[in-house]
Design goal:
- 38% of the residues lie in helices and 18% in strands.
- It is built from 13 helices and 14 strands.
- Strand 10, helix 10 and strand 11 form a beta-alpha-beta unit.
- Helix 6 crosses helix 7 and helix 6 packs across helix 11.
- It starts with a strand and ends with a helix.
Length: 362
């Protein structure tokens, strides 16, 4: 039996209150202050994972800090908290631990954490990239769209996930707009891919302006607030939101029936009786891709530091995608805000795309 653990944390204070119902009566500011004094703890035991080649069990280990606290509290303090969670994983018997949500963003993206633990560490970002691109490609095919004719906007392009997505999409997309806050790394990335993007590359720090003409949007920032609102998107657009917390406002799904918004990296985990022991908003058997990467490496008995730091390689992404196929991990259809995207919703967006094509060729 292979053994793994995955570190998670509440994105907002309300998530902590869900785990401890009595806390829902405590004012949010008080609860957030109190959370700083809670030690990382085992949140659940994960059982029933079985591929054709191996079986695995694992644990969710919680760091009781919100996304906002992960960013605003002193970096050394936050890293120490994450290391404590890794030590809990070690004591439980895990041989590899995954870094979830903002635990993979703090500091040097896991490198320092790995040095302080005696078990392997991965951020899960390689499989997140692989599945985000796979999901986007399948969504476009459902709408009858061709990436070779598409204008693509990548929000958060200079982050580790965004840069990897950019490099893989560069030889495929017609045009690419790279969006990030800091100009120098943005221009450097644009210069790197410009020779292989057929219709050219542009850069911007203005999210909303970059979305107006985008046929495809990948959003992968570490922002704690929503960046994309209903009025920002082009009719018929495909939006893949990989970020946690989400970059796309929930209002988009309610107000814009003419765009297809999907969550990046929702995976069906193999095994007839998979039980995560914790409700994180997904149906049974499903996990985020970052969680799945940790499980895949355990099943493959690859107890090694895999995805760390801010530079992902294409080789890493291809390797984890191949191992996922080997162990029967599958993309779990399209989901949007904890619910399946229906065929009726896809058909509505498809009709908009068809009308757009008719006008374009008239």
């Amino acid at each position: 039996m292979e053994k793994f653990a995955f570190i998670l944390h509440p994105l907002v204070v309300d998530d902590f209150a869900k785990k401890f119902p009595a806390m829902r009566f405590v004012p949010g500011t008080w609860l957030e202050a109190a959370m700083r004094h809670v030690k990382p703890f085992k949140a659940s035991h994960i059982t029933g994972i079985k591929s054709p080649y191996a079986q695995a069990e694992g644990w969710f280990v919680a760091v009781p800090l919100t996304a906002k606290q992960m960013i605003t509290l002193p970096e050394e303090y936050v890293i120490d908290k994450i290391v404590e969670a890794g030590q809990v994983a070690q004591e439980l018997g895990a041989k590899i631990v995954g870094l979830g949500a903002f635990t993979s963003v703090v500091g040097d993206a896991g490198i320092s954490i790995a040095k302080k633990l005696s078990i392997a560490v991965t951020s899960g970002n390689s499989y997140t990239v692989a599945t985000a691109l796979q999901g986007t490609d399948e969504a476009m095919k459902c709408l009858g769209k061709d990436i070779r004719e598409a204008k693509v906007a990548i929000i958060g392009a200079t982050g580790s996930i965004g840069a990897a997505c950019t490099k893989i999409l560069a030889p495929k997309a017609k045009q690419i707009t790279l969006v990030a806050r800091h100009k120098a790394p943005l221009e450097e990335l644009a210069h790197t891919i410009a020779p292989i993007v057929s219709g050219g590359v542009t850069t911007s720090s203005d999210v909303k302006a970059s979305l107006k003409d985008a046929d495809v949007v990948l959003t992968v920032t570490s922002a704690v607030d929503c960046l994309i609102e209903p009025a920002d998107l082009k009719a018929g657009a495909v939006v893949c939101d990989v970020a946690r917390p989400r970059n796309v406002s929930k209002a988009v799904s309610a107000a814009r029936k003419d765009v297809l918004v999907i969550e990046g990296g929702v995976i069906r985990v193999p095994g007839a009786n998979v039980d995560f022991g914790l409700n994180f908003g997904f149906p049974p058997h499903m996990s985020y891709a970052c969680m799945a990467e940790t499980i895949i490496l355990a099943l493959e008995h690859r107890y090694e530091n895999f995805t760390l730091g801010r530079h992902l390689t294409i080789e890493q992404i291809k390797t984890i995608a191949a191992l996922a196929d080997k162990h029967n991990f599958q993309l779990a259809g399209f989901r949007n805000f904890e619910r399946p995207v229906t065929e009726e919703e896809i058909a509505t967006v498809r009709s908009v795309v068809k009308q757009e094509l008719v006008v374009r060729h008239a």
